[in-house]
Amino acid sequence: xxxxxxxxxxxxxxxxxxxxxxxxxxxxxxxxxxxxxxxxxxxxxxxxxxxxxxxxxxxxxxxxxxxxxxxxxxxxxxxxxxxxxxxxxxxxxxxxxxxxxxxxxxxxxxxxxxxxxxxxxxxxxxxxxxxxxxxxxxxxxxxxxxxxx
Length: 149
Description:
The chain is of the alpha/beta class.
């Protein structure tokens, strides 16, 4: 039996959060953790898809589109090997959670691995617990990246 897994990278504004890190530092950190997660899932012979999440309008592009453009430069293997889903409707963490859940349900995923920053992961988990964790029978893991911002 194969595991259908969605590895989802939460967005981060190219404007940075108030006092936050350079967006490329955050994107690189989150995408690196997504690569680690995918590599572990490959050992389980999982059927893997990747999602990048985040809305906004930054010179005509969303957070998700900008992260995908960045990933095409530094993480080509991730994008070339797996189907990449762009979720560019969510404007905050709670909407990220709801949109990613809908994608996982529509795609009939068994598991969803949500990657965000180490310090953001508890908030992501809180939104999953409050809204969705037991719905639809999808296993959810929130994975914090290596760095704190």
